[in-house]
Structures are given as structure tokens and as C-alpha cells.
Amino acid sequence: MTLTAPAFPDDAVRARARTGAAAAFPDAADHGAALYGADPDVRPADALDALRLVPPVFVPRRLEKLIDLAREPVYRDVALDTRIGGFASALPLYLSAIGPARWTGVDLGEAASRQSGRLGIPMVVGEQLAPADRYGSSPLCRIEAYTAELADGRGGVVVQQSTEDADAEVWHLVYRDARTRPLLESGRLAFEVKVGQGATPGLGGTTVLDGVPHCAGPGTFTDEILRQQIRLMRTKFPGVRVWVKLPPARDVAAAALVAWDAGADAVTVDGAEGGTGWAPTAFLGHVGLPLGECLRRIGDPDACLLVSGRMWEGTRVAKSLALGATATGLGRAALVAVDEDPADGLVNLVDCLAVELRMLTSAMGKYHCGELGREDVWATGEMSTMDTVAGLW
Fold it and tell me: I need a surface site. Which of 240, 258, 261, 342 has the fewest CB within 10 A?
């Protein structure tokens, strides 16, 4: 079976998985023989894509870097390391939760886990894995594949659990498992309560059981229920970081504030463009806020905000960071990349993305990706006439 990703730039991701950083540029064979410029016929996929990054003329931070280095700084001097939900990460990226994924005899989830460990970025283990496998091989194989490649002090594992999966006691089993003890003792284990996701906001996860579509219960939350859930997690699982995953809901900003106020180390928001799982087509095209609108509503939080939704290249990541996100998640892009090359595809994809992010940050006159801000983005005239994004930036 061939892995497909409808309505996603599959070919571009596969090219990056094959060639790495070289894919950030036009074909070198065309250098001097082809003229390049913006293509007016290319339409942005959503409001976030429609934003433009706008460098300044005056760059005082570049001057500071020049004095520090005693030479003119270049894009390679941009630092990408950051902290994500209490974890040290080599890049402002994490591996999003991905379900059971096996094509052409290769477990793509394990391949993505292994390469995420090599990259030194956090990894989320999806809540659907443990119940499907009765906490058997799948979750632990992914964790073991990840930690086998992970350098000391980098990354971390985040284990999801939704309301419907609470009966499986996934968190309790992970917390007591001797194989996860090194992660716990080094402060690199987190549990994430899944309130919702981008593909099916308000509905819960969907799958096929015995050939019949099945929609999971979404769980019942009020602000007090969410607060108590976070407090309970902190009490029952000492030493574990607490993450909260939110859907692209109309009250996403209020929910995020409740989670942070209750002590969550990170809040993850899936935009309506996100999702790797199977979902009703009505939801994919018509339900949930776009990621750009989620970022507008949340504003500039003084806390860790993680976002996902069609992340596969540097400009979308840079714009998200500029609009308040701490890091972005790779879901479909990660699976497509490891399907293209199970040994190095995700590493190559991230190498290309990192080169782009360094160049873009340097162009803004800044030398750490965390310095990107709202002054670095501009909404085009076309966007400014749209009610849903008017006044975005």
C-alpha cells in the first residue's frame, strides 16, 4: 500500500526527504540559466500562508551580533535551540501524535520516533496507540526507538490520554514501567490530556472498527473540570510535565489561559488544517478555526504555546513563531518523509526546514528564532479585507 496525503504538498515533502537542505533552493543545474521570481498564480492555502515576512532596513540586533562575533554575521549564526514544555530541544519542533502507521512493511511510527530522537526534539505518543494495542508493543516500541537515538539532556516523550482512554490507565502504566524510568528521572517525561484535535474538533477521534466508522466520545470539559484534571495529574504523577492539547475551538484563548493558570507546562493547539488521522469529510473542510485565527485570538502568551497544522517548511514555522508560538509540530510531513526514506527522511526534511528558518530569522535581523515577533509579519491587502482575519497583525 502506498501512503497518500490528499490536499497536502506530498511531492515537495518527499523531495526534501530525499535531498535535505538542497531542496530549500531551486535546482542548482538551473543556476545562471533560469530567471526566478514570485509566481502570481500561486494562491495561499490559508490566512497564515497569505502573510508575508517583512525584513527591516535597520538591524540593531545584527550590529550586536557583529560586535559579539567580531565579523559580519550570516544566517548560519542563528540559534534554533529552545525549551518546549519543560524540555530542552535542538529546534523549535516536535513530533506530533501520529496513529498506527505501517506501509510497505515498515513501521513508519517507529522510524519517525527514531529520527526524532536523533534530532533531539520532543515526541508525542498518540492516545490511540495504547488502547489499540492494549498497552502492548506499539507505545513502548516507539519510546524505545526514540530513546535509543536521544542524546543526554535533549528532547522528551509526551504520552497522550483522552477521556475515553482513561479506563486503559495509560498514564499509570507508563509511569510505573521500568523502561520509562530514565525519562522520568531525567525530567523528560510528560503526560498530555487530549481535549481535542484539529481534524475533528468537538467530535473526538475517529477510526474504523470491523469495517464500520466509529467516533470516540470527545469528553466533557468546563473550565473547572480542566483545572482539576491538571491539578490531579500533578498530584498523581510527581516529576511528570503536564501538557494540554486543545482543538481549534472558538474559545481556544480562554481554554489556553485556564490550562496555563492551572499549571500546564505547555498548551498545544491543532489548527483546522492539521490532522493525520481518518476523519469525516465534513469536518475536514468546514469545522474549526484556521491556525492563523487561533494565533490571533491567543495573542502573545507568556507561556509555552505549541501549534500544528500543515507544517512542513520554514516560512510557516517562522510565521507561527512570530505570532506567539514556542514551537510547531510535524505530523503528516513526518509520516510522508519517513515513508519516502525510513532511515533518514525526517532528518533530511528537518535539515531543509532548519536552513530556511535560519535564513528567514537572519533576514529579520535576529539571531535566535525565539526573537521573531509580530513586527516581522504583514497581512496583505487581500487579507485585510477578510472579516475573519481583519486586524490580525
Answer: 261
